[in-house]
Write a structure and sequence with these properties.
Structural class of chain B: alpha/beta
Distance between the termini of chain A: 30 Å
Order of helices and strands of chain B: HHEHEHEHEHEHHHHHHHH
Distance between the termini of chain B: 33 Å
Radius of gyration of chain A: 22 Å
Structural class of chain A: alpha/beta
Shape of chain A: globular
CATH class of the largest domain in chain A: Alpha Beta
Largest sheet of chain B: 5 strands, mixed
CATH topology of the largest domain in chain A: Rossmann fold
Number of domains of chain A: 2
CATH superfamily of the largest domain in chain A: P-loop containing nucleotide triphosphate hydrolases
Number of helices of chain B: 14
Radius of gyration of chain B: 26 Å
Helix content of chain A: 25-40%
Number of domains of chain B: 2
Oligomer: heterodimer
Number of helices of chain A: 11
Strand content of chain A: 25-35%
Number of strands of chain B: 5
Strand order of the largest sheet of chain A: 6-7-8-3-9-10
Strand order of the largest sheet of chain B: 2-1-3-4-5
Number of strands of chain A: 14
């Protein structure tokens, strides 16, 4: 892997893209430092995939400017491609080729020197050895994903663009995957990863949240949580379902969510929230305690306050 | 269930259009273009005689529905060349004292050489010859010549069916099949090639790599050229061993010029696959191309039997020219220079299609 470079890995501003009159990515600006793992979050159809595809040259932005690895995103997509590793949302290697053949093909396409050595090395590093001669279509989800990551790394990219890499992958494989990504970041690789999973968002150095093409918040996990100013109470014991129904109607209560045997109640106005909860606390049937707000609550709150879809469904899924 | 099928059918406009378009095309092609009784066939006349009898005969042939005098020529060599090139279907030769011998009642010979590579193209016309000859001369056979009207007729008509003297339809069909098989498989295989990448999602990965459109095209075409050659070898072998087709010309020449035709078909397939959005559509387009290729190229029905507009359409198709190339080499033994008039249209077709394909190939998912 290449050592950390000077200057940001991604530095774009005003990136806009629409499909058939629907704005899918709206005036998005993002700066990712080298060696950083940047989480890219947002609901389905929020424009994450579109944005990532624009960065790696799969789509051309309607407007905007900026650089990716110091190269102009509008003009230099051919050169960007040689230095970026991309992993699509859907498995996009050849099912009828074996693991080794797939990696060998990718190495050829990128013109990797010492192809055999590089492929062997990658198979070893990703612990794909036992599957090297299996057809890719016969691998399980987790191994497919590992193969896809190996393929995107074969040419020694400086930047990884991973589009929901862990969708449909079991927790163990997800853990392994994130360990890999952190190891790579330790070697100076930059990664932009889109995800739905909150636990994964928390593994990122920094993150950005977009909804319907608009960037709603960005920063470290702590920044994001602090930035939204949400207060959360945890309630346990008693009939939580009845309580939840009643709380939802009260002013000051923005979210009520079940977490197993507890209930999380959140709101921005700490006073109003406490006031809403006070009568129930007085009854003493349940235990109330103030807890730190989690990312999930922040994002649910952001989703609720975002401007909403501009012209219906965004085209993220429509172009797979 | 039925409602769902109709809704889905409506969504896939291209498929729907094809379902309507293909039968419509078939109807028009079969209905108007195909005629298994070709008329107005080009005839060259090599007359060494300027008697009224030979002039009457030429005029009579011209007036018949079957013949159209296109060339008045002076030598045997020219006659052979015109037939080899396929410029004329027939050559009519009168010996130099034809008129004198006829008047003397000596039954002079008149020679009709026919390009019978495709027996169907010449059959009816040759069948009509006897009648044309005996009836047309009746008018001139008056007075002392009257007895000549009697059988066996005033002229000894000799017909040479060149290139296929035994009237074996398979001599014509088997070499032609080579072109048809190549068209069918090459177009379909490549039509699916890029569409499949797109459908399986592998295109997304491919587009992210530095690979260039031209490299993708060439990469898709080269393996199938090899496949095409294997097919050719098999057909040539079968033609020789199983069907006993005589191969007069040079096989290396045939193999060499075939690369143009194979590449042209692959270019068609690639172009289709850049247009089609799924494999079904690609298949349908391949058939959409295959149909006129078979019907209008002169493979199934004589090319000269078709109306002019259909001949124009046919002339665009590479198979039309390739059939002439194959039949030329195999049945007539013609050489490279004589094939040039058939080769450049294939080349032009290839260049145009490749340009379209590279232009249509999108480097982004837009």
């Amino acid at each position: 892997m290449n050592a950390a470079r000077n200057g940001p890995a991604i530095d774009v501003s005003g990136i806009t893209k629409s499909f058939g009159g629907k704005v899918v990515v709206n005036n998005l600006s993002l700066r990712v430092e080298p060696g950083e793992i940047y989480g890219f979050l947002g609901p389905n159809g929020s424009g994450k995939t579109t944005f990532i595809r624009m960065l790696c040259g799969l789509l051309k932005p309607d407007s905007g400017s900026g650089t990716c690895l110091g190269l102009d995103v509008m003009k230099d997509s051919a050169r960007i491609k040689t230095r970026v590793g991309y992993m699509a949302q859907r498995f996009s290697l050849y099912g009828d080729l074996s693991v080794r053949e797939n990696l060998d093909f990718m190495a050829r396409v990128y013109g990797v020197e010492d192809r055999r050595g590089t492929v062997d090395n990658m198979i070893g590093r990703m612990r794909l050895g036992p599957y090297a001669d299996q057809l890719a279509q016969n691998l399980s989800g987790g191994w497919k994903q590992r193969l896809a990551l190996a393929a995107s790394l074969i040419h020694g990219p400086e930047l990884l663009l991973l589009d929901e890499p862990t969708a449909g992958v079991d927790p163990k494989a997800r853990r392994d995957f994130w360990d890999q990504v952190h190891e790579l970041a330790g070697q100076g690789l930059t990664a932009l990863i889109s995800t739905h999973y909150m636990d994964e968002a928390e593994r990122c150095h920094r993150l950005a949240y977009i909804s319907y093409g608009n960037l709603l918040t960005k920063g470290t996990v702590e920044d994001v949580i602090a930035g939204c100013g949400l207060h959360t109470w945890e309630v346990s014991g008693g009939d939580l379902y009845e309580l939840a129904a009643e709380l939802k109607k009260l002013p000051g209560v923005e979210q009520v969510a079940h977490f197993g045997n507890t209930l999380h109640v959140s709101g921005v106005d700490a006073g109003a929230l406490r006031a809403a909860l006070a009568p129930f606390m007085a009854k003493g049937a349940q235990t109330f305690s103030e807890v730190p707000t989690s990312l999930e609550e922040v994002f649910i709150s952001l989703m609720g306050t975002s401007p909403g879809p501009q012209g219906g469904e965004a085209a993220q899924g429509g172009r797979a | 269930m039925v409602v769902k099928e109709f809704v889905q059918m409506r969504r896939d406009r291209l498929t729907f259009a094809m379902m309507i378009g293909i039968p419509l095309m078939q109807l028009i092609l079969f209905g108007f273009a195909i005629n298994s009784n070709p008329q107005n066939l080009p005839l060259a006349v090599l007359s060494n005689d300027d008697s009224e009898f030979s002039r009457t005969l030429v005029a009579a042939m011209q007036n018949s529905v079957y013949f159209r005098v296109t060339n008045m020529i002076r030598s045997e060599a020219e006659a052979k060349r015109l037939l080899d090139l396929g410029d004329v279907q027939f050559v009519l030769t009168f010996p130099h004292d034809f008129g004198r011998l006829l008047a003397r009642g000596d039954r002079p010979q008149a020679l009709v050489e026919a390009d019978a590579a495709d027996p169907a193209a010449t059959g009816f016309a040759l069948g009509a010859l006897d009648t044309i000859f005996s009836q047309s001369l009746s008018r001139d056979l008056i007075g002392p010549l009257l007895p000549l009207r009697a059988q066996p007729g005033p002229v000894d008509l000799i017909v040479h069916r060149l290139y296929n003297p035994e009237i074996q339809t398979r001599y014509n069909i088997v070499p032609g099949l080579m072109g048809v098989v190549l068209t069918m498989t090459m177009v379909i295989i490549t039509a699916l090639a890029i569409t499949r990448e797109r459908e399986r999602g592998t295109m997304e990965n491919l587009l992210c790599t530095p690979v260039r459109p031209f490299e993708v095209m060439v990469g898709k075409i080269v393996p199938y050229i090899v496949v095409g050659y294997i097919q050719m070898m098999l057909i040539i072998l079968a033609a020789k061993v199983v069907f006993g087709v005589p191969i007069l010309g040079s096989l290396p020449l045939l193999l060499a010029v075939s690369i143009l035709f194979i590449a042209a078909n692959l270019a068609v397939g690639i172009t289709f696959s850049t247009v089609a959005s799924n494999q079904l559509q690609a298949m349908q387009m391949a058939f959409f191309f295959f149909l006129p290729s078979i019907l209008l190229s002169g493979f199934m029905f004589p090319f000269r039997g078709m109306p002019e507009w259909a001949q124009w359409v046919g002339s665009v198709l590479p198979l039309t020219h390739y059939l002439r190339v194959v039949r030329g080499i195999v049945l007539k033994g013609v050489g490279f220079t004589d094939l040039l008039p058939e080769l450049w249209p294939i080349l032009a077709f290839l260049v145009v299609l490749m340009t379209v394909a590279v232009k249509r190939y999108r480097q982004t998912l837009d």
